[in-house]
Design goal:
By secondary structure, the protein is an alpha+beta fold. The protein has helices at about 5-10, 10-25, 30-40, 50-70, 75-105, 115-135, 145-155, 155-175, 200-205, 230-250, and strands at about 135-145, 180, 185-195, 215-220.
Length: about 250
């Protein structure tokens, strides 16, 4: 069964959809077969976010139609097999390109974490799971202290190195299922499903060795009073500025 990319939200889900479409296009015997694949697959890659994938599907369908026309001119099984092999290779190249375009669109190039777009796509899906299963979670808004001063005094290469260190710290402290993102110049966000112990998280971040220092804000998701992701992030952002101000005054 085809799964919506917006619902699945991962490259693995994209690969499943595209692999099934590839198999059916390679096996197509008539233009009607090709059209059936396109009509079944296009709605799955719905929305502007998947426009590149829809374009790749169109290109692949064009190749498949060419292959259907070629079948009528071929006389031997060997020729048909070779034509199928070439078609499958060409379509696979298109899918690989589409997957890479999708990956880059949701990834922060410097740190390798999700970017803002990737964070909202993935965290929204996790939030749906929390609502459905009535589980708690939390959103963290983190600001990397001292980045502007470091850029001004030592240059942007030094600032970039500090950003990478901060990303590495988050990878070490959080779990694989947590959603880690750099959403702005010196701003990071973390979505933590199934865990709402803010004090423990703050203690771990504060106690981590190294030169990374963070201003930290958190907002807890309560399934009894569910809030949306934008609201949670806004509350965490406000809490982060309160933390930054209190640490400066203290």
């Amino acid at each position: 069964m085809l799964v919506s990319v917006k619902q699945a939200g991962s490259l693995s889900a994209c690969a499943e959809v595209l692999a099934e479409a590839t198999r059916r296009l390679v096996e197509a015997r008539t233009p009607e077969d090709v059209n059936a694949v396109v009509e079944a697959t296009a709605p799955v890659l719905n929305g502007a976010d998947e426009l590149a994938l829809l374009e790749i599907l169109t290109d692949a369908a064009t190749l498949a139609l060419s292959n259907v026309a070629l079948r009528t001119q071929l006389d031997t099984t060997q020729d048909v097999t070779e034509a199928n092999r070439r078609l499958e290779e060409e379509i696979e190249e298109h899918w690989q390109f589409a997957a890479e375009v999708f990956r880059q669109s949701v990834t922060d190039e410097l740190t390798g974490l999700y970017n803002r777009r990737g964070f909202f796509k993935r965290a929204e899906q996790e939030l749906v799971q929390l609502r459905d299963h009535k589980r708690t979670g939390m959103v963290l808004f983190l600001d990397l202290d001292g980045l502007k001063e470091l850029n001004d005094t030592q240059g942007h290469d030094a600032g970039d190195a500090l950003l990478v260190e901060a990303a590495d710290l988050l990878r070490r402290l959080f779990r694989e299922q947590d959603v880690l993102a750099r959403i702005g110049g010196d701003e990071f966000a973390v979505f933590v499903p199934g865990w709402a112990d803010v004090d423990q998280v703050v203690a771990r971040l504060r106690g981590a060795p190294g030169r990374v220092r963070l201003s930290i804000g958190a907002a807890v998701f309560d399934p009894a009073e569910p809030r949306g992701l934008y609201e949670l992030l806004g509350l965490a952002d406000t809490a982060m500025y309160d933390d930054k101000r209190a640490r400066k005054e203290g």
